Amino acid sequence: MSSNTMIEAKNISKHFERKIALSSLSFSIKQGELVALIGPSGAGKTTLLNSIAGLVPLQSGVLLIDNVPLAEYKRGKRFAKKIGVIRQQFDLIGPLAVIHNVLAGKLSEWGLIKSLFSLLVPQEKEVALIALERVGLADKPYEITATLSGGEQQRVAMARLMVQNPAIILADEPVASLDPARADDVLEMLTKIVSEENQTLIASLHSVEYARKYFKRIISLKNGEIFFDLPTEQVSDELLKELYQLKDQD
Amino acid sequence: MMKLIPSIQLHKRFILTLLLLAVFVWSLTSIQWNSELFHAGGIPTMLQIFEGLIQPNLEPSILLIGLESAWITLAYAVAGMSLAIIYAFIVGVLASGTLTSSKFSRIISKVFFRGILGFTRSIHELIWAWLFVAAVGLSPYAAILALAIPYGGILGRIFADMLNDVPVQPILALKAVGSSRLQTLLYGYLPLVWADFISYTMYRFECAIRSSAIMSFVGLGGLGFQIQLALADLKYESVWTFVFFLIALVIFVDVWSNFVRKGLTDHKRNKGIRSGWLSVLFALLLIAGSWLYITIGENARMYELLSEKNLQYAKKFFGGLLGIDQENPAFLNGESWAIALKLTIETLEMSIMAIGFSTIVAIITVIPAARNIANGSLTLKRKWYNWILYGFIRLLYIFSRSVPELVWAMMIIFIFKPGILPGAIALALHNFGILGKLWAEVVEDMDPRPIRNLATAGASKIEILFYGILPIVLPRFLTYILYRWEVIMRTTIVVGFVGAGGLGMDFKLAMSYFNYTQITLLLLCYMILVVIADFASESTRKAVK
Question: How far apart are CA B198 and CA B190, in angstroms?
Fold first, then answer.
């Protein structure tokens, strides 16, 4: 495993009007790391992921993606190869067939004509079929996506990510609306694929259990600050209790 | 084999799109595309009309006339709508069947009263106006009743639908505590639907303003009358002055109805019923003012409608329609039918062409016209020109929909020779703005998450359009296309009045020659068209689902 740094954050801050969302965070994540992001609601997990994805501008600090400042990337092919995002299953186009949703991962590489033609006759079908095979949906490429169950839709989203093949995957509460069995299934598949491809994964989770089970490093946020940043085996129950404790003095 | 089925399912929409395109192309083949379509002086006239648009006549005398006719147009619309609401309320409640007890009487009342509502709304307000003027002469009541009847039909039907769609639990709970049928209506049904009903009525009020303006074309006063006079004198710069008055009136109603709708949806939060009561007060003042103006200012008396003379006229007119004492009524004559049916097909082609043109323009313009595209929140791409484009297209939409089809037709007819093409263009000019506005709202209301995800995956703007936005919004776009097509079908007859071909042109001729049985025949053909439109759009809607 190579050990070059994929994400380097130096004192990044972000506030919405007067409320502080991220206050001067610094951390660095190497290629191939699997990082879980935990913390109480409103701690800034989603804001952090959105900042890394370039969806919300930062007020101050430096964020390097693969040693290049985030601001220097333009949306488009190059950025799509660096960072991919997966959320709950609401990220798919419901009325399209599964295969088109998967092939949407190729849109950054395709020209306009090819992408339009692909809606009639799917292009680079094999790539999509292999991806669907790996997530266990080989039999459903032509189903309408909206008719699939929540767990299946999340796997379609994973197949899309495999086709897009970014260096870094940001997962924002990827299993929030799934039952425990499906959640286990999705996380296991996600972490397995990421490890095989030597990609970097940052996933925000509301469940500490999943974080411990599938991730090697846990970063916890509280009130927009890093509360702890430790290898999973060093995260103690006391620390977690303190993390989720409600403030008494307020 | 199993895999084939979903893929056929997938291509169903594609096939349907091809089919609709083919129908559109078929309608285009009915026209001989050559220079014969234009008048010799058509292009220079168009330039003159355009010149008038840039430099409208702003002389004080013209502005004063404009203000006065705008008030007449508003007053007729308000008076007509106030009657329409009463009619819609009574017949709507009866048609919903909420007051009846047994299943049998409910079905009877539903069929009967829904039939009445259906009949009154299937005939265009201008035809009602014509019938009333022919029957009772030039009285403001001809205009008011002509507005009240079809609008009451539309409102009543929607009202009945709303009453039928209320959730059952609160109603059952009321019945369980022993409330009578009337009490259930007052405490259960009405509170559940009134907010929706008011916002729909406000939306219809905007349409009533336009309808009121075109009432002038049967000789009743208002903005349309002035537009007609100015066009006849070839004073294009004054035409636009009056058109701008009409646009201002439509925008005023639009703003007011947005205000009312907003108040209805968030009045719980800011607990201010004040703005609501302000609107109620304003509405009451408008209604009182309008009726005062009509009864005192224009000295029109309701009972005059029923004078001996008018009853005589009406008897003669409706007797004529039914072919009483006629040698050879047109609606029993095979030859007349053949000609009329040919005109019916022409009218059908005109309506298809019109919706086709509107769809093309709307689909080109709709994406930049959506607020969430303009501010970049949907596609994550912000460009400085987005807002300019948004403002420009929205202005174009307002302009397009504020001017009634009939007024567009009257101008177009100066450029093109009579035929179905000018009719189709006039209808399209009015409808693309409505279609565009409705579509833009669909785009604004869609779930932004899947689209943003496509953007983060690196899709370009056009790829986002085809992979993200269109698959989600197309079914609803189609619904609106079909809905507007039904409306266009009703309106084809009206643009025909000014010489845009089809059934309407023949209708006007028959009217001028007092050929009453021919009128009956044409009305029959027209109803056939409305039935065809209902059926075609209903089955297309089902096919998409």
Answer: 11
